[in-house]
Design brief:
By secondary structure, the chain is α/β, with parallel strands linked by helices. The protein is built from 12 helices and 14 strands. It folds into 2 domains: 129 residues, 3-Layer(aba) Sandwich (Rossmann fold); 205 residues, Dihydrodipicolinate Reductase, domain 2. Helix 4 links the parallel strand 3 and strand 4. Helix 1 packs across helix 11 and helix 6 crosses helix 9. InterPro entries: Gfo/Idh/MocA-like_OxRdtase_N, Gfo/Idh/MocA_oxidoreduct, GFO_IDH_MocA-like_dom, NAD(P)-bd_dom_sf.
């Protein structure tokens, strides 16, 4: 088990954590809290858990927070916590997209580290401004593209970086779901309502919600940078204001003398039979890799001209990058919550190194504000391309 709590004599003090959003009834808030506790690196001690004061108070009470550390607004929380001797060191932002920019800015400018849900912001202008705030204030910014925390995703990344696939030629990423096949946002379903509302979600629907995950994962695994794209977006459900399906052609930037890799990305929330079908395939001059989230402990590797091989988490053939983020022996499944926890633990390593004035270990990897800017740029490029009947748009 590579990721584990240190002994009480040697372990770092738990990081004092606050949370914005994530109150009663919020799915992702509970996920973040579980992820923060799995490796015992954080103590949740403060929160502005809802924009509704009564709900914020009740949510704080339900979580056992000190009433004096339960706030009715994130700005009030940022101001007071920054002045307290034992104030929060980091904050989790788990709100709808349109709140990310203002909330993160309040904490960053006071030197409080930010762990924020994706996408970074609801528009590219705010994303770029937020990067500037983060850069100027020196606080860490961690974006929870949690799928990058899976051990076998780290394995795939390591193999490609080591040249085991040769020059990358083709990248395919897909993320189909079916939960928005009908207009559930019109029934009062909270998660659907804000995700299909341009004022809260931004210009992208499925592209912003899950397309950014597929795009980020493809980039993370391959190390490639996107050059341009051509997108065809649809809102199949009558009356829906944002896309619920997207087909995107990708052209990546060349690496050295290599011919630029090409790719395809499909994201959909109207694909019956798919609950959460995230998958990435990568093909190079020497072989191919395939990983799917429904079997996250397995990675298929095919050297060209040889039989297909199955690499298992913590099993034979798994490398150091996968090993350092594995918690249990081979044959015991690790999943979504553990992958999410990996991002929190990588953030903890970085925060603790910062407190000591040390460089972060190069093995520590997590999505940053730069990845967030790229994700929002991807969404806006998809929308711009689709409006031009699928014309190629440069990023």
């Amino acid at each position: 088990m590579a990721i584990e709590a240190s002994s009480e004599k040697t372990r770092e003090p738990r990081i004092r954590l606050g949370m914005v959003g994530g109150g009663a009834g919020a799915f992702i808030g509970a996920v973040h809290r579980i992820a923060a506790r799995i490796d015992d690196q954080y103590d949740l001690i403060a929160g502005a858990l809802s924009s509704t004061p009564d709900k914020a108070v009740q949510s704080g009470r339900d979580l056992g927070l000190d009433p004096s550390r339960t706030y009715s607004s994130y700005r009030e929380m940022a101001i007071r916590e920054a002045k307290l001797k034992n104030g929060i060191e980091a904050v989790s932002i788990v709100t709808p997209n349109h709140v990310h920019y203002d909330a993160a800015k309040e904490f960053l400018k006071r030197g409080i580290h930010v762990i924020c849900d994706k996408p970074l912001t609801s528009n590219l202008a705010d994303a770029r401004k937020l990067k500037k705030v983060a850069d100027e204030n020196g606080a860490l910014f961690v974006l929870t593209h949690n799928y990058t925390g899976y051990p076998m995703v780290r394995q795939a990344r390591e193999m490609i970086a080591n040249g085991e696939l040769g020059d990358i030629r083709v990248v395919q990423a897909e993320y189909p779901q079916d939960w928005l096949t009908e207009a559930v946002e019109q029934t009062g379903q909270k998660q659907a309502a804000w995700r299909t509302d341009p004022a809260q979600s931004g210009v992208g629907g499925s592209t912003g919600d899950i397309g950014t995950h597929a795009y980020n994962l493809a980039s993370f695994i391959t190390g490639l940078e996107l050059d341009s794209l051509a997108a065809d977006l649809d809102s199949f459900v009558p009356g829906r204001r944002l896309d619920d399906n997207a087909h995107v052609m990708l052209r990546f930037k060349a690496k050295g003398s290599e011919k630029p890799a090409k790719g395809m990305l499909w994201c959909s929330q109207v694909a019956p039979g798919h609950e959460n079908g995230l998958m990435v395939r990568v093909y190079g001059t020497k072989g191919g890799l395939e990983w799917t989230q429904k079997d996250p402990n397995y990675l298929w590797y095919t050297p060209f001209g040889e039989p297909k091989r199955l690499i298992t988490r913590a099993g034979a053939g798994a490398g150091a990058a996968a090993g350092r983020v594995s918690r249990v022996p081979s044959g015991h499944p690790e999943g979504y919550l553990e992958a999410f926890a990996t991002i929190y633990t990588e953030a903890a390593h970085a925060i603790n190194a910062r407190k000591k004035g040390k460089e972060v270990d190069k093995a520590v990897v997590y999505p940053t504000v730069d990845d967030g800017v790229k994700g929002v740029a991807f969404v806006e490029a998809c929308v711009a391309s689709s409006k031009k009947n699928g014309a190629w748009v440069k990023l």
